[in-house]
Amino acid sequence: MPDMKKVALFLNGEKPKNNPNLEKYDWVVCTDGAYVFLSKSQIEPDLIIGDLDSIESLPSHIPHIHTPDQNFTDFEKALSHIIKSGFIDIDVFAANGLEQDHFLGNLTTALKYKNKCNLVFYDDNQMYFFTNKQTKVDDVLDKMVSLFPFPKATKVFTKGLKYVLNGQTLNMKKNKIGTRNTAIEETIKIHYKKGNLLLFIEL
User: Fold this and answer.
1) Which of these, 189, 16, 202, 5, lies nearest to 92 by C-alpha position?
2) What 3 state SS string does 176-191 have?
3) Could you report the per-residue pLDDT of 129-148, keeping only the tens digit for each?
4) pTM of whole model > 0.90?
5) Alpha-carbon dihedral of residues 81, 83, 88, 92, nearest 10 degrees?
6) CA–CA separation, 192 vs 169, rounded Å?
7) Pick from 129, 76, 77: which is nearest to 106 by CA?
8) What mean pLDDT is reported for the chain?
9) Span 57-74, pLDDT tens digits
10) Which residues on adjacent β-strands are paired with residue 178?
11) How far apart are CA 134 and CA 153, in angstroms?
12) DSSP state letter for 195
C-alpha cells in the first residue's frame, strides 16, 4: 500500500465521546465489534478484521478478514495484519472501558509488540503508550503526566516535570509509581535503564 504511513485502529472498548479526526490517517481499521459503534457514527473503516461474530450483517462493500483463531485476541490479530501490511505507526482507540480484563489484555499485547511498531492509545482524557528507554514528548506544558511501571522500571530520570525523578526505581509491586505529575516545560524527556514504563499524558 504505497504512500500510506499512519493507521487508526478501533477496538471494541468504550466508544469515544468525540470521534477522532480521521483525515490524518491513511488507513482506518477496526475489529468487528468496533464496527458496530462506528457504523452508528457514520464512520466507514477501510478494513474490518476479527472473528466476525459481533456483526449481524457484514457489509459487502468493506473489505474484511476473518480471523477465527481464539488463541489470539482481535487486537493482536489486527496488529499482526497491520504490521505485515507495512505499517508501524498505529493510534488505537476504544481500547479501555467496558471490560477491564480486555483492557489489561490490550496493554499486555501492546507490550508484546512494543519493539515492532509505534503504538499510542487514546481515550477521551489521555493518550498513553509504552516508552522507549529514551523518550521525548513535545507540546505538553501544564498537562498532567503519569509514569506507570509495568511492573518495574529502574533508574528513571525525567526532565520537564514538576516532580523530578533522578534515578529512582518505579515498581508496581512496591507501590512506587509516578502518577499525577505535571509538565512544567513544553517538552519533557524521560529515560530509564531497564524494565517497562507506561506514559500517560492528559489531552
Assistant:
1) 16
2) ECEEEEEECCCCEEEE
3) 999 999 999 999 999 999 99
4) yes
5) 30
6) 9
7) 76
8) 92
9) 788 899 999 888 777 888
10) 147
11) 12
12) E
Tens of pLDDT, residues 3-42: 558 999 999 999 889 889 999 999 999 998 899 899 999 9
Would you state the cell numbers that stand for residue 168, as one nine-digit string? Answer: 529512582
CA distance 34 to 41: 11
Q: Which three cell numbers stand for residue 123?
A: 481515550
In this structure, the chain runs to a length of 203
CA–CA gap between residue 51 and residue 32 (Å, rounded): 7
- Whole-angstrom distance, CA of residue 140 vs CA of residue 183: 6
**Cell digits of residue 183:** 509538565
- 60 vs 200 pLDDT, higher one: 200
* Complete DSSP assignment for 84-151: HTT--EEEEES-SSS-HHHHHHHHHHHHHTTTTSEEEEE-SSEEEEE--SEEEE-S-TT-EEEEEEEE
> CB burial class (10 A; 0-12, 13-18, 19+) of residue 35?
buried
Beta bridge partners of 168: 156
Q: Is 66 left (phi over 0), alpha (psi -120 to 50) or beta?
A: beta
> What are the grid coordinates assigned to 43, written together?
464512520
What confidence tier does 198 reach under pLDDT thresholds 50, 70, 90? very high
